[in-house]
């Protein structure tokens, strides 16, 4: 008997086969229309047509199976004694390791593209990223959001730093829906053709196609696609960084399913405004978290004014001035200082609730302010909650 319950067993009429296995036709209207309702004998020509449909379905199933497995190769099985120590192979020292998949997350207007472009251009030229070592490599950048201004930003970077060689950074100025197998295969071929060492997807929202970023299954599939793109060149793994937005509650990190944060190798988060921004590392799977890095946007003229048009300007990022003056300048810090003036000795837990801040971000910020001398902490014993106090001239 076939898997659709049509071919009768030896000594059994097709009519009886139909009556026994009518449920096999549920959800298969093309077979129901041909075979009838099972109350009469199936003519020979109907049986042949049904078998042809089954064969076509088998071919489609086999094609899907081949597509799903064509980029997969069996993983290695190693004895525990054969495992070696992991030494980070940095693309951007302290921030992005080679062959990893991760996210750069931030709300609208937190300079995500400016930062990602800075990383991309430094990698393409081998130029150090503000003191951090960089691995030289080819970059493929999917710029589906803000494509009209990417040329201005790239030119501003070259004016400030150095000229980028041809094909060192290749921009894809349009969307590549990651839920579309044909689009993903096209992107995979571009990675191979340009020998891309680094892939930026800007942004996930514009390139997710019809996938729902709040659905765990859909997010899991998108992340699997990103890992598949990482492996497009085999052992010459491509580092994949997706740019993503925070949700309405900025303190909850990446917008959508928690899979975004749980299933990637690294997660960096941006916050700030008015050209004062902070980059914080929320997750590094196999390395320690980098210290928070603060930066500003510096305006650059990329085309002088003429009689017919105004000057064209863009921006590049540059490190912010360090020291207590910067520490006290941020509005969020003023909220911390104001709270501690009224609640000296408060705990982190209470401050998270009172200020509506992300626990990890607030804890890191308090530690930075303590180093700067703006606040101090006291702890009754090891493992006990810290009590925080405001101090210092700049905090008053």
What would you say this structure looks like, in words?
- This protein has 13 helices and 14 strands.
- The protein has 396 residues and is α/β, with parallel strands linked by helices.
- The chain folds into three domains: 14-64, no CATH class; 90-317, Rossmann fold, CATH 3.40.50; 322-395, Orthogonal Bundle (Arc Repressor Mutant, subunit A), CATH 1.10.10.10.
- The strands form three sheets. Strands 5-4-6-7-3-8-9-10-11 form a nine-stranded mixed beta sheet. A three-stranded antiparallel beta sheet has the order 12-14-13.
- Helix 2 runs antiparallel to helix 3 (44-69).
Keywords for this entry:
single chain; 396 residues; alpha/beta; Rossmann fold; Arc Repressor Mutant, subunit A; 3 domains; 9-stranded mixed beta sheet; 3-stranded antiparallel beta sheet; 13 helices; 36% helix; 20% strand; disordered N terminus
Show the helix and strand layout:
Elements: H1 14-20, H2 29-35, H3 44-69, E1 90-92, E2 96-97, E3 101-106, H4 112-125, E4 139-143, H5 150-160, E5 169-172, H6 181-193, E6 198-202, H7 204-207, H8 216-230, E7 239-245, H9 259-262, E8 266-273, E9 276-284, E10 293-303, E11 312-319, H10 324-329, H11 331-342, E12 346-347, H12 348-355, H13 359-372, E13 375-379, E14 386-390
Parallel strand pairs: 3-7, 3-8, 4-5, 4-6, 6-7
Antiparallel strand pairs: 1-2, 8-9, 9-10, 10-11, 12-14, 13-14
């Amino acid at each position: 008997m076939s898997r659709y319950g049509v071919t009768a067993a030896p000594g059994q009429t097709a009519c009886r086969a139909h009556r026994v296995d009518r449920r096999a036709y549920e959800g298969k209207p093309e077979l129901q229309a041909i075979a009838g309702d099972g109350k009469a004998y199936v003519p020979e020509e109907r049986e042949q047509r049904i078998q042809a449909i089954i064969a076509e379905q088998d071919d489609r199933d086999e094609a899907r199976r081949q597509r799903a497995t064509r980029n997969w190769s069996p993983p290695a099985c190693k004895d525990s004694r054969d495992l070696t120590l992991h030494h980070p192979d940095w693309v951007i020292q302290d921030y992005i390791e080679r062959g990893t998949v991760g996210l750069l997350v931030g709300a609208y207007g937190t300079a995500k593209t400016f930062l990602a472009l800075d990383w991309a251009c430094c990698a393409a030229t081998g130029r150090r990223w503000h003191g951090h070592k960089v691995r030289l490599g080819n970059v493929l950048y999917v710029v589906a959001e803000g494509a009209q201004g990417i040329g201005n930003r790239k030119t501003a970077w070259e004016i400030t730093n150095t000229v980028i060689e041809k094909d060192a950074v290749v921009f894809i100025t349009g969307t590549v829906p990651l839920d579309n197998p044909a689009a993903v295969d096209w992107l995979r071929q571009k990675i191979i053709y340009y020998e891309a060492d680094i892939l930026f997807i800007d942004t996930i929202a514009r390139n997710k196609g019809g996938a729902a970023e709040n659905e765990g299954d859909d997010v899991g599939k998108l992340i699997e696609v990103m890992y598949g793109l990482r492996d497009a060149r085999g052992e010459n793994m491509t580092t994949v960084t997706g740019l993503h937005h925070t949700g309405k509650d900025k303190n909850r990190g990446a917008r959508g399913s928690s899979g975004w944060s749980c299933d990637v190798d690294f997660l960096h988060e941006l916050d700030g405004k008015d050209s004062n921004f902070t980059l914080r590392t929320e997750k590094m799977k196999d390395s320690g978290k980098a210290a928070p890095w603060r930066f500003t946007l510096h305006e650059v003229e990329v085309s002088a004014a003429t009689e017919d048009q105004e000057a064209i300007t863009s921006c590049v990022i540059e490190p912010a001035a360090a020291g207590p003056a910067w520490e006290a300048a941020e509005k969020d810090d003023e909220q911390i200082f104001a709270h501690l003036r009224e609640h000296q000795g408060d705990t982190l837990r209470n401050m998270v609730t009172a200020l509506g801040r992300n626990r990890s971000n607030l804890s890191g910020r308090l530690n930075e302010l303590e180093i700067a001398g703006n606040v101090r902490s006291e702890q009754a014993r090891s493992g006990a909650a810290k009590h925080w106090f405001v101090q210092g001239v700049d905090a008053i």
